[in-house]
Amino acid sequence: MTNSTPLDLVVHADRVHTMVGDGSADAEITSIGIRDGFIVSVGTRADAADWQAATSLDLGDATITPGLTDAHIHPIMGAALASGVDLTSVNTIEEARAVLSAYAVDLSRDDWVLGWGLNLNVFGTDDIRGDVFDTVTHGLPMFLRLFDGHSALANPRALEIAGVTGPRDFGQASSIACDATGTPTGMLYEWDAMDLVQLHLPEDAPEVLAGRFLDILHQMSATGLTGGHAMDFTGSPVDMLNALEAELDLPLRLRFAPWCNPGATEADLQELLAIQGTAGRRWSVEGVKLFIDGTIDNGTAWLAQPDSLGQSRDSFWPDPASYRAALSWLDAHGVATATHSIGDAGIEYVLDTMALLERRVTHRVEHIETAPAAVVARFAALGVAASMQPTHCTHYTKPDGSDNWSRRLGPERTARGFPTRDIRDSGAILALGSDWPIAPFDPRAIMADAQLRRQVGHPDAAPCQPEQALTARMALEGYTSHAAASIGQSDRLGTIAPGRCADLTVFGADPLALDADDLADVPIVATLVDGSVQYRGLNYQGAL
Known about the structure:
Blueprint (H helix, E strand, L loop, with lengths): L6 E6 L2 E2 L14 E5 L2 E6 L1 H4 L4 E6 L4 E4 L1 E6 L1 H7 L3 E2 L6 H12 L8 E6 L15 H4 L4 E5 L4 E4 L1 H7 L12 E4 L5 E6 L1 H8 L7 H17 L2 E6 L6 H9 L7 E4 L2 E2 L5 H10 L7 E3 L2 E4 L28 H13 L4 E5 L2 H13 L6 E5 L5 H10 L2 E4 L1 H7 L7 H12 L4 H6 L4 E3 L10 H10 L19 H8 L1 H5 L18 E4 L8 H4 L4 E6 L2 E5 L8
Parallel strand pairs: 1-5, 2-6, 7-14, 8-9, 9-10, 14-15, 15-17, 16-18, 18-19, 19-20, 20-21, 21-22
Antiparallel strand pairs: 1-3, 3-4, 6-23, 10-11, 11-13, 12-13, 23-24, 24-25
């Protein structure tokens, strides 16, 4: 340590994974010196004996890693969704009816039955209709956001309130599902169709939404997260975030990317540009989220060949060239982007577009659910980062191909699904995340699933595409060094080294030495953001 100014804090633990290089230099490292929210020194306990510090925190036999960052979350949208009932654990229509019935009992006649996270697979091969829940909604309007985040199910009363009586044309790949008589079934695909009903939903008071948002961040912190790439910025978040930071520090560091929707004009792009750099102490707007397609499960992905139902044939942008123009404009103005791209044709078009850019900033592709090897290899060749969510595979698909996603794609495209290992082996950057509230956010379970290619805790279950399993170190890199590299911030985040932000996650056991099935249950001892303890677990023994 060359600077003689005393440190604010020295943290000790028996194991430190710096995530610098291959980790071969980490064996002797046990101590981290922190000043003004940044890491100043890294060394052994013997080295640290010579460091002057105001406070010392000895975490004993714990393991310290760089702070875990979820590369794809929707915390503002999730806070709004949480006003309804959580349906993510429901596996059958009967279970869904039981949960909704219990939720609806205490509602008044002016309320709505709201839910989120319902998996389309509960319907099996039956028609998907909102009226199947009329026996438990007691005449109240119902609006259920489905697990993919790109579709919703409304009952007849909700459709009546919204004035939805038949099909409509939209300016993007949205649609209202109707039966043979032209009567809406209740299925609403993509945002323009969903908004027809969503605009009639009761709104939470700002303070209620802010409280729920903060509670979600604290829950995330308790699982080891210290940061998130937030793929939303809806409503009036600046006012909410400023109000929260007037009272406290956010427990996570958040990087927001507002949406650029199909048909965006130059005025829309200018508005997105103007908000870049808006920031508080632990949040900032640094990028834009775009969509080239929807989802495979609801037939709105962009595939090279239609799915088994003849769907997923087109871009989310009616004119894909407009997407290319928007991305080029954003790149020329120094705005980083993340493009939602699930189908093989969509992924290839996004990569083709990025090949044409000067790439003044870092651009990223989200999800990447099915793609041939030649397309996967282009990520590394182009220097484009990938961002993927392992539990989209392990929670929503089945190795026997009986799930909706697999049935739509067929065996050949399913076999090349969720190619995490191929992307890593190609030399590309691979950030990992949850897509919460689409899937649970606990990074320990997600890193475990990335290694197992099945749900952690189910050792008898067969894996999906087992050849795509990541190593333990690859999975941890996805939440640390690769998450930082995917947004061009390796000089600030993602590793434990001098000059990096002092964001740390403290595990009760070594995540790189555990069996993957044990990783989901490893205790989180503490999290630190800017060198300040944010979460204290049951095993935390420090005085801070």
